[in-house]
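re: ur question from yesterday

yeah so i grabbed the chain u mentioned. its 133 aa long if i counted rite. heres the sequnce exactly as i have it in my notes:
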Amino acid sequence: MRDTRDAFHVAIPTHDLDTAVEYYVFGLGARLARRYPDRVTFDFFGDQLVCHLDPAAVVPEPVAYPRHFGVSFARPEDFDRLLTLIEHRKLPVFSGPALRFEGTAEQHRTIFLVDPSNNILEFKQYEDPRLQF
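ran it thru and got these structure tokens back, copy pasting raw so excuse formatting
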């Protein structure tokens, strides 16, 4: 049903649009698509991420579960490039990198980041890419 031209959409709160642009564009390398007084839209690894200006909705402390989002990389080299980018740009890490479910079919590498508004991002790469869904 989903075509390669389609994009998944996720919307999250932010306390400051400038800070969101700094983090997502100049930190993670997302492309700025549109900006309005109350929100900013990014091309986030081929999907649409919208940061809505809503300081009241920003959680005071970052918590990974149950709400987080990110990318499951099919190729290990893409995950490795992200780890290098995180280290080079000194992006804030919430936890990891780590190996989860070691020794099982669902074994995967993961890293959790925290953005300036305490939204948690998880990036991962399964040893067996068939298990990313």
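noticed a couple things. The first strand starts at residue 9 and ends at 14. also The beta strands are 9-14, 31-36, 39-44, 47-53, 69-73, 93-100, 108-114, 120-126.
anyway ttyl
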